[in-house]
Write a structure and sequence with these properties.
This protein is an all-alpha fold. The chain is 90% helix and 0% strand.
Length: 40
């Protein structure tokens, strides 16, 4: 059985994952746009 402490740790991990995702997606989008502009 998962304890309340495990749930807090899981929520913290999930929060950092979402933050990382929010930063990474725009960076990938900008990088892709630059590459497409160089090719075109």
């Amino acid at each position: 059985m998962a304890s309340g402490n495990d749930m807090k740790a899981a929520e913290a991990t999930y929060g950092s994952f979402l933050t990382l995702l929010k930063v990474t997606i725009p960076v990938i989008a900008v990088g892709t746009a630059v590459i497409v502009a160089l090719i075109a």
